[in-house]
Design a protein that fits this description.
By secondary structure, the chain is of the alpha+beta class. Helices cover 19% and strands 43% of the residues.
Length: 127
């Protein structure tokens, strides 16, 4: 964080962290009703792979369910206000795929829209 960053209250930090971690837990990540509430209508992602993902690609078919072997709590998790209604998170993802741990630097932009925090943007970069 930068010196000028405005800290989040403990309650807001916990709320944003819980939302971010819901993206890495299979029971919530594959719950389309929940994810429909989490992803803003204009959401997009620059994936760790370099691919760009649109909102509709973030919702899955029930047959797509699979466990997510992500390290929790999310390592090096930080959150800061950009404005009163916009929060940026950063962290390191550690996920095991086929016995190999892949790490990525992650950043998300959350916006409070009609009183509800929605994910607007996410980026993953290999590290």
């Amino acid at each position: 964080m930068h010196e000028a960053d405005k800290d989040l209250s403990d309650a807001l930090f916990d709320e944003i962290r819980t939302l971010e971690e819901s993206l890495w837990q299979a029971t919530s990540r594959f719950d389309n009703a929940l994810m429909d509430q989490v992803f803003a209508q204009d959401f997009f992602e620059f994936g760790r792979s370099g691919r760009t993902y649109a909102r509709h690609e973030m919702l899955f078919e029930p047959t797509d369910f699979q466990e997510i072997a992500a390290k929790m709590p999310l390592p090096e998790f930080r959150a800061r206000h950009i404005t009163d209604d916009v929060v940026q998170t950063t962290y390191v993802s550690e996920v095991v795929y086929d016995g190999c741990t892949q790490r990525g630097n992650r950043s998300s932009i959350w916006s409070r829209i009609d009183g509800v925090w929605r994910l607007r943007f996410h980026q993953g970069t290999p590290c």
